[in-house]
């Protein structure tokens, strides 16, 4: 049987979901028997190839996030939103009720600002979106793994269900939003 | 405020400091001061012995009440689809431009605000607006310019040209109801309460508000209720977009409406009646009050009516912009000075209505018909119309036709006949009974206006070949979202989600995914909503999907799911703040 | 004693009891949020909707009647309940990881019960500033689901009318009884019934947050269906 090709990425997230993924501990040896990693912060491959499965942590905060997400959607047969931020924007989305211009003004131009009166405008920097969006508002998402982070057990259960060709399911003991 | 405090106190006195008069007290305060400010609320709290939460809860429910100043001239454009078809959107823009203000915002000098409101019931002579809640009809560019001039020179509203406020009756076809003559009350009291009920029963009269419940059964149930304190309520909250026949009845036949209520009171044993007049018809209030005064002088209302052992009087209660109050239990809540939230039913108003007493709530046209029936006989009436729908029905015809106005037909008239009579040329669709009714295509023009086929509260909006039925449905969905009372989850959130999806399709972001989402929301609105508003909120969408699919298909521009917003536009604020416009400062459209 | 059938099981009821009341007393869980056994039914959240003779009806306000055949645990009804729950999640700002009610929240627990993995719809992200004016309590309106339990508790038990719903439609919101609109200017007290009745994380005690560790919170230990059962048994 061919191994499943898996890519992962963190957008507007904290890498906590990836840490949780690594917390499957020794089960990772079992996992690599069945999967092969494509782009992922784990191996530092930067470009995503054709994949069976894409796992995305974090919501969409800026133009680069959108670009990566679209690339993943194009290349991955199954795309999964992993963790609270990918699912509802999470902590970064708490800026949403406030207009972006007010936020930039406060942070960069205000008295307590951190950049001495200049809003960074280097073309290397991705521009922030006016609101932080969860992934499903921008591309079709096939599965959601809730949790902040989803526990290693949730991730493990999801992957093993998928590998076994079962519809992934989480019982009440695994389903958590915090 | 201090100089106005005594006036607020005298308003409170005028209504006997009665808690159930809260709506009328708030309205009079607003008419005096332009809004219901915190000082006035303090006085009302104290005067009515009500907590502030109650007053704010009620005041903020109704869209005509404002807790903050909305300008010395508050201008609201009627936003029914028929107003739009007559060019209201461009006129609104013109007015905003001339007055230098943004829609929905008060001008900096507190002079004026311009916004939209749900259908004001002037569809036969639109586009229409309300200025400080008084109706102005037949807007065109010249009239908009004149109004802007009057506003800018701060001419008081009562000095504006009277032609602006002229409301035509536009009666195009009369039948037994509109051509009825003479008084009904004398004959009714002569007959006695038992015979009145017999006549109403023999007539087969069914409620004209749309639902078609048997009037005799309703009156009978109220009469048989144990509680001796009973009420008669006339529902003149004609809020269904496209309906304006009650406006005409209250203009031409007010006395007959009041007679009908009095006859009902006599039959069920009520001493007090209330007419709930929609806030949009505020301009009718003085005439209605003077009709009541005349009837009292003639001893046809008040103590010992016509020398008999029968006391009955009628109060007029003005609404303040809430479609949901057309639902009878919400209307009763509103009469009690509360938020217009439909009650849990049962119990029904006939046993537990106004202040928990047995209450008959009937439509304006129903009371008119009842008066006619008692005058001319139930048997005679039952021969008019069809077997299951006796009598006649007033239709409010508007939209793409040469003679909009009021048409009275015996039940059973075909849509085609109405279309011919009103001069509709090559119509594409008709919305029967407003957004909560049925959208029919030309394949169905032989259907009949009757409870057994196309039941209707009276609206009959005609759409020509060039009209886009998706846009019609979208207008209606926004109407429901605006008018949802917010009580139950499915309607409060569901109508907004539905509106957002329709906007998404309108804005060119639609895919088959959204189509399925719309179906899903329709399902939950129909099955889970608390009242008829939620149940029918999806009717126009479903009808348009079923009968005018190409209008939808035009919107399914994408094969795959597409975001509801434009991603590149979502960077606009950041571009502005950073001054960047390089390639990386943009997101390519539609690449998924 | 009179009885009706709930998913084929016989449930007895007392005159005047609603279907939900009788079901809970019999230890049967029907999802609900605006219902509370100590208060008059309200009927607004619609999660407790059941099917009777092919028609949906809110079981918290529908009087039980002899011989009714009531369906509740069906795939169709639970799918609709899930949609309603998702609607509540997108209507407000429900960020569970940063909410100290997480683990004790009935909205969250209901969502777990219904197997919700995402809020599905596009989020509204409303702007609802927090009111921290009261010395002992704060109000985080972001999480309000408009169940009106605090309104009922303050009105019917505390005789205070501290809370009310204002506005209309999607703009419906909670207000407090003060000209300033601030809780600190009302007669709200920590001993009020209204202080302890919020099913979500709006009315929160200040001073010490997150005091119960993850794993020991209400719904870490019990699924909401079992919890409703025990809460009722504690009362009787």
What can you tell me about this protein's structure?
The complex is a heterotrimer of chains A (178), B (592) and C (236). Chain A is an alpha/beta fold. Chain A has helices at 16-22, 27-34, 63-75, 84-88, 100-109, 152-163; strands spanning 4-10, 35-37, 51-57, 60-62, 76-82, 128-133, 143-145. Chain A has one domain (4-94, 127-163): Rossmann fold (3-Layer(aba) Sandwich), CATH 3.40.50.700. The longest helix of chain A has 13 residues, at 63-75. Chain B has 592 residues and is an alpha/beta fold. Chain B folds into 5 domains: 2-59, no CATH class; 73-168, Glutaredoxin, CATH 3.40.30; 173-382, Rossmann fold; 392-467, Ubiquitin-like (UB roll), CATH 3.10.20; 470-553, de novo design (two linked rop proteins). Chain B has 24 helices and 14 strands. The model of chain B has no long low-confidence stretch (mean pLDDT 96). Chain C folds into 2 domains: 2-73, Roll (Ubiquitin-like (UB roll)), CATH 3.10.20.740; 82-208, Alpha-Beta Plaits (2-Layer Sandwich). In chain C, a hairpin with a 6-residue loop joins strand 7 (163-166) and strand 8 (173-176). The interface between A and B is medium-sized, with 26 and 24 residues.
Question: Which helices and strands, and how do they pair?
Answer:
The complex is a heterotrimer of chains A (178), B (592) and C (236).
Chain A: E1 4-10, H1 16-22, H2 27-34, E2 35-37, E3 51-57, E4 60-62, H3 63-75, E5 76-82, H4 84-88, H5 100-109, E6 128-133, E7 143-145, H6 152-163
Parallel strand pairs in A: 1-2, 1-3, 3-5, 5-7
Antiparallel strand pairs in A: 4-6
Chain B: H1 2-14, H2 22-33, H3 38-48, H4 52-59, E1 73-78, H5 81-85, H6 88-98, E2 112-117, E3 129-131, E4 134-136, H7 141-152, E5 171-173, H8 185-191, H9 193-203, H10 215-224, E6 231-236, H11 245-252, H12 254-268, E7 272-277, H13 285-297, E8 313-318, H14 328-335, E9 359-363, H15 364-376, H16 378-382, E10 392-399, E11 405-410, H17 415-421, E12 427-432, E13 438-441, E14 459-464, H18 469-483, H19 489-506, H20 512-528, H21 532-536, H22 539-547, H23 549-553, H24 572-578
Helix pairs in contact in B: 1-2, 1-3, 6-7, 9-10, 9-12, 12-15, 18-19, 18-22, 19-20
Chain C: E1 2-6, E2 9-13, H1 19-25, E3 49-52, E4 55-58, E5 69-71, H2 75-91, H3 106-113, E6 137-139, H4 149-157, E7 163-166, E8 173-176, E9 203-205, H5 218-221, H6 224-235
Parallel strand pairs in C: 1-5
Antiparallel strand pairs in C: 1-2, 3-4, 3-5, 6-9, 7-8
